[in-house]
Amino acid sequence: MARLGSSDLDVFPICFGGNVLGWTADEADSFAVLDYYAAAGGNFIDSADSYTAWAPGHSGGESERTLGAWLKARGNRDEMVIATKVGRWDQRPGLSAANIKAAAEDSLRRLGVEHIDLYYAHADDPDTPLEETLSAFDDLVRAGKVRHVAASNYSAERLAEALRISRREGFAEYVALQPHYNLVEREAFEGELSELCERENLAVLPYFALAKGFLTGKYRPGGDSSESPRAEGARAYLDERGVKVLAGLDEIATLRGVPVSSVALAWLLAQPAITAPIASARNADQLASLLPAADFELSAAELERLNSASA
Description:
Residues 13-309 form the NADP-dependent oxidoreductase domain. Helix content is 40%, strand content 14%.
C-alpha cells in the first residue's frame, strides 16, 4: 500500500479505472473484474458522475451505480477507497457551489455510501471563482460527506493558486492531482506541474496510464483491433516514436517475464510523486496483465531505455 499524499488514505499502487463499469463491462463482468481486483489486494477505485455519458444509450452515472451495486452486494465498503468526480457532466457542469453540493448528493446516492473518500474537481472551471469552488468542497469535508478533495486537469498555475487560497482561508486542501500522463504523453505533466506536486506532497494519479490501450502492446503496425471502442485513439500513437516505445516495452517485458502493460505502469510508478496509475480492465484476464506492476521495479538501465524511446 502507498500513502496518498498528505491524506490518511492508504491505497493499492494500481488504481482501478471505473470508466468501463456499466459500459464495456456489463454488471456481471463488472462484478467479476472488481472481485478479482479486490482478491488481489486492490482497494482503490476511480469513477466520475459523467461516466459513461459518452456511450450510445447512456446518460451518465452508470459507473457509479454499478460500483455502488457491487459495494452493496459484497458488503466491503469500509475496505475500499472510492474516488469520484464533479464538473464535467453535461447534466451537472462546472464547479459552482450549488452544482458541487447537488452533484455530491447524487454521487452519494448512486454509490450507496455515506461518504466519498476522494472527491475531484474533474476539470478546472475558469468561469467560477476558485474561492467558491474550494469553499463548497470544504463544506462537504466538514459535513463528513467527503474525506479528501483533489484536482484533475489543472494547470500548475491554477493548482498553485487553489492551494494558496485553501491555506489562506483554512479550507480543505487538494491532496492529489489526476493528470493525463503516460510514456507517450509526457510534456503536459513533466516540468512545472510535476515539480509543484513533489514540492506540495500531492499524490499524482495519472489517467490514460496505458494511452487508451496503446501501451498494452495490443495495437501494432498493420494490426486490426477495430473491435475496441478505443482503437482509433490508441492507433494514433503508432508513429515512429510509438513504435520505439513498444520495442522498449517488449524488450523489458520479455527479459522480466511480465506483460507489456505492467512495464508501462511500472515506468509511471518510478516517476516522482506518482502514487497509483489509473488503469481500466474489462475482465480478469486484462486485469491480470496490469497487477504485476505493483510488485516489481524497473532498473535504472530499463528506465533509461524507456525514457530514451519516449523522448
